[in-house]
Design goal:
The structure is a single chain. The protein has 457 residues and is mainly alpha-helical. The chain has 3 domains: 100 residues, Fumarase C, Chain B, domain 1, CATH 1.10.275; 244 residues, Fumarase C, Chain A, domain 2, CATH 1.20.200; 98 residues, Fumarase/aspartase (C-terminal domain) (Ribonucleotide Reductase Protein R1, domain 1, Orthogonal Bundle). The protein contains 19 helices and 6 strands. The protein starts with 14 loop residues before the first helix and ends with a helix.
Length: 457
């Protein structure tokens, strides 16, 4: 089959070359954006008198028919078409004849693919931000349902200090709020209309780029044709935001894996989100969480792949840039279901409150509180830290916890300790003492939740 660009060539393209260079296998998902862009483009051509109104009507009718055929599975994709743009134009010529050739006036596949990718990515960012919001709501609901549940907070995966579970979950909400900000900010740089830059230098036709932008819902029009067709920053920025999102989703997944283990036994993940073992009948594996954790590597790899593609390219368009689509599509196909699954997991999770509280009773979680108590009695913090460290060592030797020591034993380390030390070594009261802005006290967590509710509205 002769190519639409084949006038300069004496030989047919090698079948191996066609197979190697074709992007139709994966960029056919851009058909809606490609057709929408073409319809806007031909409307502009008619408005500017570059094509006749009746020609524009023919082209638009043909494009709409092609869209219906693709969506009903009647459209036949052919590797010789190379990409979605050529596939649609080929079938359009079959449907309406020679007038179809006028559609490509004043544009190039270079600016056409940029348009398709920007239209597509705008939609995907909006969907991802909705999914992030749904996960935030799921976490917030879980936090409110278990508002006063206490568990150990960890540093270095060692029990450190008691915190409220609600406060713990709000930490992930803060991460996800930053994700939304990043994607919304990225959206601003995606929301730029590139069509009209043509191959790299613009066009000699009297086009109206702002009219096309208005038709397609873009808030800006690109200002430099050379930069426009060579720019993939908007995809790199999206992949970067997605990689940071994947980090946070992976960390959350890791907590689900740990907390659902028999060693922690803090939660039970609903059966609908677990699988069994092919050999061990007793097993209930947190496979969904493990896969979310594992798939983060794909998202990181996609960012690195495109950075590597772009780093050595001279201006303007180079065929290497065809490699932008698969990393983008794969990233979208990875993060969207991960967000939806995590929202469902948290909505259906079982929190083992007693086990969480019991875990705070070992590990000297109130050692810092005891040191702070000694500071209120006049000791410098470093001296208080030293004394409490010696008390912890003594407890380890005796097989005791700090709250099990007698007052006499405590006074053996520091005679400033009084009867009121029992108030200090109470987990619930330790939580309530942390009233500083952003702390884990119940009153502060309630304030944070009310603030979040207002933000979500």
């Amino acid at each position: 089959m002769s190519k639409l660009w084949g006038g300069r060539f004496n030989k047919e393209t090698s079948r191996l070359v066609e197979e190697f260079t074709a992007s139709i296998y994966f960029d056919k998902r851009l058909y809606k954006q490609d057709i929408a862009g073409s319809i806007a483009h031909v409307k502009m051509l008619a408005k500017q008198g570059i094509v006749l109104p009746e020609e524009a009507e023919q082209i638009i009718a043909g494009l709409e028919e092609i869209k219906r055929e693709i969506e009903t599975g009647q459209f036949q994709f052919n590797p010789s078409d190379e990409d979605i743009h050529m596939a649609i134009e080929r079938v359009l010529r079959v449907k309406i004849g020679r007038v179809a050739a006028k559609l490509h006036t004043a544009r190039s596949r270079n600016d056409q693919v940029c348009l398709d990718m920007r239209l597509y990515l705008k939609e995907e960012i909006e969907e991802i931000n909705i999914s992030i919001l749904n996960l935030i709501k799921s976490l917030l609901t879980t936090a409110q349902r278990h508002l006063e549940v206490i568990l150990p907070g960890y540093t270095h995966l060692q029990r450190a200090q008691p915190v409220l579970l609600s406060h713990y979950l709000l930490a992930y909400i803060e991460m996800l709020k930053r994700e939304r900000d990043r994607f919304q900010d990225c959206y601003k740089r995606v929301d730029v209309m590139p069509l009209g830059s043509a191959a790299l230098a613009g066009t000699t036709f009297p086009i109206d780029r702002h009219y096309v932008a208005e038709l397609l819902g873009f808030s800006q029009v690109s200002t430099n044709s050379i930069d426009t067709v060579s720019d993939r920053d908007f995809i790199l920025e999206f992949l970067s935001a997605s990689a940071i999102l994947a980090v946070h989703l992976s960390r959350m997944a890791e907590e689900l894996v740990l907390w659902s283990s028999q060693e922690f036994d803090f939660i039970e993940i609903d059966d609908a989100f677990c699988t069994g073992s092919s050999i061990m009948p007793q097993k209930k594996n947190p496979d969904v969480a493990e896969l979310i954790r594992g798939k983060s590597g794909r998202v990181f790899g996609n960012l690195i792949a495109l950075l590597t593609v772009m780093k050595g390219l001279p201006l303007t368009y180079n065929r290497d840039m065809q490699e932008d689509k698969e990393p983008l599509f794969d990233t979208i196909d990875t993060v969207k279901p991960a967000l939806k699954l995590l929202a469902e997991i948290w909505q259906n999770i079982k929190i083992k409150e007693k086990n969480m509280l019991k875990a705070t009773q070992k590990g000297f979680l109130l050692a810092t509180d005891l040191a702070d108590y000694l500071v209120t009695r006049g000791l410098p913090f470093r001296e208080a830290h030293q004394i409490v460290g010696e008390m912890v060592k003594y407890c380890q030797e005796k097989g005791k916890e700090l709250e099990n020591l007698t007052l006499e034993e405590m006074k053996g380390f520091c005679n400033l300790i009084g009867e009121d030390v029992k108030e200090v070594l109470d987990v619930k009261k330790a939580i309530e003492r942390r009233r500083a802005w952003g702390g884990t006290a119940l009153t502060e967590v309630k304030r944070q939740i009310e603030h979040l509710k207002k933000e979500l509205k």
